[in-house]
Amino acid sequence: MVGDDRWHERYSRQLVLDPIGEEGQLRLGETTVAVVGAGALGSNSAEMLVRMGFGHVRLIDRDVLELSNLHRARVLGDAHVGQPKAHALAKELMALFPEASIEAVDEDLTAGNALALLEGADLVLDGLDNMTTRYIVNDACMELGIPWVYGGIVVTGGLVAPLLPGGPCLRCLFPEPPEAGSLQTCESAGIHPSAAGVVASIQVAHATRLALGQLDRPRLIALDIWTDDWRVMDIEARKDCPSCSGSNREFLEEGPGEAVTSLCGQDAVQINPARRASIDLDARAREWEKVGQVSRRGPMLVLDLGDVSIHLFTTGRALVKGTAEVAVAKSLYTRYVGN
Ligand SMILES: [Zn+2]
Hints:
Helix content: 25-40%
Low-confidence stretches: none
CATH topology of the largest domain: Rossmann fold
Radius of gyration: 20 Å
Structural class: alpha/beta
Number of helices: 12
Bound molecules: zinc ion
Mean pLDDT: 92
Distance between the termini: 44 Å
Order of helices and strands: HHHEHEHEHEHEEHHHEEEEHEEEEH
Strand content: 15-25%
C-alpha cells in the first residue's frame, strides 16, 4: 500500500535519492508508461519500471519469443519460447511483483490503432525493432501530447533521445523514414546484449526525469559499448517540422502506406513498402548467408529459413512464403530486410 511501512522500505533508496524523494516516488506511482516492443529494450526497461514503482506499465508487442531472443532479454527464459512476448513478460513480472499493475497488449501497433493503444499513457518508451512503427508512434505521441523516449540498438551501438510534444520529435532528428532494407538488423548484423542494457537504462532514467518534470534539455546520446565512444548532442525542434510544429500526422493515415496482403491459397504474404527502396541484392546475399540458405533467382534474392522463405526484390517488395499470417510475415520482413 502506498505510504505504508513496506512501501517505505521497498523504495527507501529512491526516497533518500535527491531527485526523486517521497514526492517524486508518489508521482511515479501515478505514472502510466506504455512500452512499445517487449524484446531486448522492452524487457529491460519494463523490469526496471516495475521495480521502481511506476504506477502502470502497458506492454505492447506483436511477436512471439524465440530462442535467439534470449541472450539479450530480461525476465524471460527457455520456458517462454513460443509464447507471445508481451503476455509472457507481463505474467512473469506480475509473479515477481504481485502489487504491480501491468497490462499486456499482444498486438501489432499500426497507423489504425496507435492512438487507441497509447491513449492514457503519460509517456512512451521505444522498444521497437523497426523505423516504420517509430514514425507511427511519433505521430501518435504528438497527437496525444505525450513525450516518448526513442531507443535503438544494433551490433554494439545504440541511440537514445527523449522526444517531446512540441518538439524535438523523431522527424526533427530524421525528417523522413529510411528506405526499406537500408539499415542493419540484429538478425544479420548481430547485437551485443550490453547495448540493450545500456540504452534501456538511459531510457528509464529519461522516463523518470520526464515523469518528475526534470528533463528540460533534450539530448541525443549515440554510444558504442565496444569502442567506448559516447557522443551527446543537443537536439532542437525544427521550425518546419511537419509533425511537432504543425499538425501533419501522415504516418497515422492508412492508405497508400505499406501494403501487406495475404495471398489467397498460396500460404504466402506479400509486403510492398510505401517507399520504393533500391536494395543491393549482392550485399544482402552476403549478410543473409550467415542466417540461412541464399539463392539468387534473376531479379529476386531468396532466403530459405526452413519452414519459411523470403523472396526479396530490389524495390523492397517481398514475398514471404510458408505462412499466411500477416503478423508473422511482417515480423520476418522487419528482421531480415529491415524497415
Ligand atoms: Zn519535430
